[in-house]
Amino acid sequence: MIQLSGVVKRFGNIVAVDGVSLFVKPGEVVGFLGPNGAGKTTTMRMITGYLVPDAGRVEVGGIDVVRYPEAAKRKIGYLPEDNPLYEEMTPYEYLEYGAQMRYIFGEEFRKRIKDVVEKTGIGDVIARPIGELSKGYRQRVGLAHALIHDPDVLILDEPTSGLDPSQIVSIRELIKELSREKTVILSTHIMQEAQHLSDKIVIINKGKIVAEGAPDELEKLARGEMIVHVITKEEKFKDILLKNGFNIIESRKVDNEYEFVVTSQSKEDIREKIFQLARKNKVVLLEMWKERISLEEVFLKLTKEESV
Ligand SMILES: Nc1ncnc2c1ncn2[C@@H]1O[C@H](COP(=O)(O)OP(=O)(O)O)[C@@H](O)[C@H]1O
Ligand SMILES: [Mg+2]
Questions:
Q1: Residue nearest to atom 1 of ligand 1 (CA)
Q2: 179 within domain boundaries
Q3: Atom of ligand 1 at shortest distance to CA of 42?
């Protein structure tokens, strides 16, 4: 549905996007996650046909964006970073203007505006000047504008930045809702947002993709080994674990319970072995759980490694 191959963009001496290749399937929601200056906006502007790459190819729905930017734009709804809106216009006028630019008039326009107003929940503010609206509503108007021509693809650049916490929650919900019908690429520098909204996360740093995958795949990738916490009342279990080839990276005693943090070099699931070992030695395990690495750690690790 969206395909980038070896895409490069330079601004003078700066290589903003440095050989990005990416495939996005129809209906997929992909989160571009990366620190400021990583190249997210530049990549999105090339996908939407507003910037021409210095090298590489960009295709949307089988259309070469560089050769046929107008045809590609018909398939794409774009919410740019800091969503530029005309303050004096009302949302109605702004949407009408957006529709006209896409040659949508008359009955078709009435159908489309009804649909997008309903989807984005801007009915109550449709006749008020945009300048008077809250940032949350402005973002909804921006989304309505991006949706007016019913595109297959939505490109949303930092859609929740600058919003207050409750607005963030409602815009995320709206995006989640919209993403059921569309192929979406959104950018964010917030890990939790990428994790919450995306099927696939693409971590970008210094113009390059440093990792991509489903949120839980990325977590696995960063860890490589398994970390298991074990709680028991029996101190001797520590020696038993050590004798059986496990590493204990931490142990602590709370009241009369011991917590051992166990790892193993192998990538296999060690919980079963620990359980069998406890049973064989008649050690009662009170608790055992696998540590989950947060995507935040993955993100920090990957972006740090790349920047050395
Ligand atoms: N129009 C431009 N002119 C010069 N440099 C730019 C321009 N747009 C972006 N850059 C530079 O390209 C790099 C990537 O920027 P950008 O794509 O905006 O990153 P992000 O959206 O991830 O924060 C940055 O170093 C930025 O300063
Ligand atoms: Mg940006």
A1: 11
A2: yes
A3: 17
Please report the atom of ligand 1 found closest to the CA of residue 12: 4
37 CB near ligand 1 (under 6 Å): yes
Number of domains in the chain: 2
Q: Are residues 185 and 88 in the same domain?
A: yes
Phi (first) and psi of residue 122, to 5 degrees? -105, 15
In a mutational test of the pocket of ligand 1, which residue from 7, 9, 10, 14 has the highest number of ligand atoms less than 8 Å from its CB? Answer: 14
Q: What own/partner pairs with CB < 8 Å and gap ≥ 24 does 94-101 have?
A: 94/130, 94/141, 94/145, 95/141, 95/144, 95/145, 95/148, 98/145, 98/148, 98/149, 99/148, 99/149
Is there a domain that residue 300 lies in?
no
Which CATH number do you get for residue 89? 3.40.50.300
Predicted confidence (pLDDT) per residue in 75-117, tens digit: 999 999 988 789 999 999 999 999 999 999 999 999 999 999 9
Considering the domain architecture, whether residues 81 and 173 belong to the same structural domain is answered as: yes
pLDDT per residue as tens digits for the range 47-84:
999 999 999 999 999 999 999 999 999 999 999 998 87
Any atom of ligand 1 within 6 Å of the Cβ of 14: yes
CA 136 to ligand 1 centroid distance, Å: 25
- Residue range of the domain that includes 161: 2-214
Q: Which ligand is nearest to the CA of 50?
A: 1
**For the domain that residue 282 is a member of, what is the CATH number?**
3.30.70.120
Please indicate, yes or no, whether residues 122 and 51 belong to a single structural domain of this protein.
Answer: yes
Q: Ligand 2 centroid to 235 CA: how many Å?
A: 53
